[in-house]
Amino acid sequence: MSASPVPTAQAAAAASPKSSPAPENPSSVLGQNDFLKLMIAQLQSQDPLQPANTNEYVSELAQFTQVEQTTNLANASELSGAVALIGRTVSYTNTSGEKATGAVQAVQSTASGTTVTIEGVPGVKLSSITEVH
User: Is residue 26 part of a domain?
Assistant: First the structure.
């Protein structure tokens, strides 16, 4: 009997007890959740008999705090700018790609970003606003 050859990547995946698909990041940007996932993966894979350098761990926590504060500041700035648009007439590109105009009525802030409601149309991204009248 002859054994069929197994491709190297498949053999490595079969031998590994914790095989998982390759992570995807189409925008090539690391956010808060990505940073935490990397840190948790690092802590889970370290040898308990030879833990990582404590100074490195504290440094990583400080970096995470800095990233978090920068993100919070950017979100607050974006939200503040959107609130300033309430009552103003704006031109924007709608989801059909057409130019539309209307008054900003409300602001929504979600995990995916800040959006506005223009003349009853909710979820208009700030990036689609082309002009403020």
Answer: no
| Domains of the chain: total | 1
Neighbours of 82 (CB within 10 A): 20
Q: How far apart are CA 81 and CA 74, in angstroms?
A: 11
- Sign for the pseudo-dihedral over CA of 11, 12, 18, 24: negative
DSSP string, 62-104: HHHHHHHHHHHHHHHHHHHHHHTTTT-EEEEE-TTS-EEEEEE
Q: Is the pTM of this model over 0.90?
A: no
Question: Which tens digits make up the pLDDT trace of 22-73?
Answer: 556 555 666 677 777 887 888 788 877 777 677 777 787 888 888 888 888 9
Q: How far apart are CA 85 and CA 130, in angstroms?
A: 13
Q: Which domain holds residue 68?
A: 32-43+54-133
